Amino acid sequence: MNKIEHIGIAVKNLNESNALFEALLGKAHYKTEGVESEGVLTSFFKIGETKIELLEATNPNSPIAKFIEKKGEGIHHIAFDVENIENEIQRLEAEGFKVINATPKNGADNKRVAFLHPKSTNSVLIELCQERTDNK
Ligand code: ZN
């Protein structure tokens, strides 16, 4: 793994949290993007080499809606940048980690992503992400 690519934060109201994080970081978010399959609307802030991803649920069945229901707003996941997501999934499975989706899927911000189950990672949801090069 190369670096922390971003930290995902579950929020109830993306507009309000955009304003809050703009004030906090002293800069505006650089994109807003929906991920239909996950039922989320995201916005991204760049801070050095790392990003902050705010996530708002777009429907009650969204994983973000369920997370907020259970735990309230807050840090939802940590995403690590990887060079070869398939290799990394194999390596982590061999190490005994539980991978939620062993086949990477398309995530926000032009990434292919896979998640590790928090049960195998001290209750921290871990995202692996690899920059997409196919431009789809
Ligand atoms: Zn993420």
What keyword list fits this structure?
136 residues, 8 strands, alpha+beta
Secondary structure blueprint with pairings:
Blueprint lengths: L2 E8 L3 H12 L5 E5 L4 E8 L2 E8 L5 H9 L2 E8 L3 H10 L10 E3 L3 E6 L9 E6 L5
Parallel strand pairs: 1-4, 5-8
Antiparallel strand pairs: 1-5, 2-3, 3-4, 6-7, 7-8
The protein binds zinc ion (ZN).
The site of zinc ion has 6 residues, from strand 1 and strand 5.
What's the short version?
With 136 residues, this protein is α+β, with helices and mostly antiparallel strands. Helix content is 23%, strand content 38%.
Question: Could you give the distance between the termini?
Answer: 24 Å
Proportion of beta-strand residues: 35-45%
Order of helices and strands, N to C? Answer: EHEEEHEHEEE
Structural class: alpha+beta
What is the gyration radius calculated from CA atoms? 15 Å
Please tell me what the overall shape is: globular
How many helical elements?
Answer: 3
- Low-confidence parts lasting 5 or more residues at pLDDT below 50? none
Strand arrangement in the largest pleated sheet? 2-3-4-1-5-8-7-6
Number of β-strand runs:
8
Main sheet properties: 8 strands, mixed
The kinds of small molecule bound in this structure are: zinc ion
As a percent range, the share of helical residues equals 10-25%
If you average the pLDDT, what whole number results? 95
